[in-house]
Amino acid sequence: MPRRLGALATALAAVVLAVMVFTGDSSAGDRGEALGARLRCPVCQSESVADSTSQTARDIQSLIDEQIAAGSSDGEIIDFFVARYGEWIVLDAPAKGRTLVLWILPVVAAGGGIAVIASRRRRGASAVASEVIEEDRRDLARQVEMGELDDAAASKLLSTYEAETKAPPPQPTSSRGSRVAAGVTVMAVAIGAVGFAVVRSSEARPVGGLLTGGIVDDGPRDLSNVTNEELEAVVAANPEVIPMRLALARRYFNEGDFSAALPHYLAVLEKEADPEALANVGWMVYLNDSPDTAAAYLERSLDAAPDYTQAQWFLANVRLFGLDDPEGAAPLLRQVLATNDVPDEVRQEAESMLAEATAS
Amino acid sequence: MSRQVLVVTIASVLVGVVVMAMATRFGSDPNAVVSPLVGTPAPALDLPYLEGNGSVDLAAADGEILVVNFWASWCFPCRAEHPVLLDAADRWEDAGVRFVGIVYQDETDTASAFLDEFGRGYEAVTDGGGRAAISFGVFGIPETFLIGRDGNIAGVVRGEIDAEILESALQQLLLADATAD
To answer: pTM of the prediction?
Structure first.
């Protein structure tokens, strides 16, 4: 019996699939209209291009007709629209990827439903049958006891009754079954509604959800391949973006073009106390023969970032050579020398400066 | 009876779980239609000016950053976003960003009247037969496409554009562009 049921379910699934696959619009007389019927109207609610009277649908339909006249195949025309609107534009969900579920689920549900109904009927019928047989057995036993029947006749009659009750007429669904079904439905709807509401209300919408595309914030970028002029244009157009301005200022600073670097660093310092800007402005000020102001900038830089080696190194120089303060310079030089990634020439110079500072 | 209650409970919980799983929409927003055009070359279109003679050849704009906005006089969000676009077009002009407005399903005189009322600041072109809108896969206006200097569509903003989104998108495009070669 279960094998027959399985076969029935499979056959039904096959029929359903065949109907779903072959009831396309390929029979429609006009090829353009048939193609329009396969495409979703982009500005409508669940309407095909062929069915919609919107301007957009008419534009698409006329483009389809043009492409047919130009000799495009159905596949090429569908692909043309898919390339612009995505798979969404095709009304039939493709039987692949995520939408494969849409094709499989009805078949599974139909098969499961048939199996449940059949098993319930079988179980109900066999319960009734065994009850009837049991009653017959009791009647026959009573008749034998009262001497109305002999054992042989009774057992013959019993096997006749058994044979008759093996194929009972179908029984109506029990009221208990419908109560269970009703209960399941009501509770499922209630839980589903609550669950749906909870999930919908707790779900955060993505930030900038309207923007789709390759523009994403993926952190700082490598600016090494950009010319100064390009970077200037970018900075001019984005005066508020500090990392770009810092990159440009650093470039000028490293090139020794202090007059170009200074305005950018000062613009950064108007926005925030950036340690690099403070340190490099301090150094430029020192080279401009203002050691006191330079020291003030460099101290502010170290206030903002105490472990910033460049500021330690600059301030040590300013204190030792500009302010004649070897005692103030020595601890900074020790900090510089304790840092791992100091370039060799700076290390050698720092060592000789420390020797000089501690000797005096 | 207790078996019935058990069956009802289990079945209900199962159905509830399935519904909740469906409600998560599997992490995707069905309203956010992703354009397959992102990352592909922008359509090469030659579109006539709304006002006056001549045309704008989007293909010839290669090398500029393009902001292509589809709009119409009958579109209310277009009215709201027009000042944002005018302001951005003015501020980003020096950085090599060119704005082009494509009039979508509208009459020439009503579109011009719209510009009389809300202001002109960048090129406005027409889209005969809706071919430009179809080429860009426009669903409904307003829609704004960002095209990088490489001529590829870098992003799409569907619906009314927000000054912050536009600003940040353009900044990132310029940065990406500045670091490209």
So the answer is: 0.51
